[in-house]
Amino acid sequence: MAQLVALISGIIFGLGLAVSGMVNPAKVIGFLDVTGDWDPSLAFVMGGAVVTTALTFRFVLKWPGPLLGGAFQVPSRQDLDMRLLGGAVIFGAGWGISGLCPGPAFASLAYLDPKMALFVLALIAGSYLARLNIFSRSSTPPPVTADG
Questions:
Q1: Angle at CA 30, nearest 5°, toward 24 and 36?
Q2: Distances (CA, A) of 123 to 107, 120, 132
Q3: What is the pLDDT of residues 61-73, one digit of tens each?
Q4: The pLDDT value given to residue 135
Q5: CA 67 to CA 70: how far, in whole Å?
Q6: In angstroms, how far is CA 49 from the centroid of its own chain?
């Protein structure tokens, strides 16, 4: 049941990204180009997402746990370290250059565009290599995912 809910949630999320234009790199770059031909429409998408998330978290975190079992996984760290800041800079630069971030990139695979498939393959490879590098320097084992 949990996997079915995850699939349906992912489909709804992907449809939202497609309808909003977030899967179109040109639209994202147009939003980020504040000194040129700026397209502010994605600000409403992001604002809607922030408001929805804030309201949902306010109520859901009062529940004893997720509806389908387990426990909520909420970050407890409050500090900013160089790994977090460096990752944010790399993420933002990549998003600004390509117009894509992971969610819209995966959703855009539905269009069967070979360039998007190449981007997603590079994203997966980079994530895997970064994970190997990060955890090879740490005594903390990688976190266990929900599927094992």
A1: 165
A2: 13, 5, 14
A3: 889 888 887 888 8
A4: 59
A5: 8
A6: 12
How far are the Cα atoms of 79, 84, 86, 142 from residue 133, in angstroms, in the given order? 22, 15, 14, 11
CA 114 to the chain's CA centroid? 21
What is the reported pLDDT for 55?
94
Token reading at 134: 């990060």
Tokens matching residue 28: 């994202």
Cα 78 from Cα 80, distance rounded (Å)? 7
Q: Look at the block and give the residue holding tokens 């949630």.
A: 9
SS3 31: helix
Evaluate the CA torsion angle 110, 112, 116, 120 in order and state its sign: positive
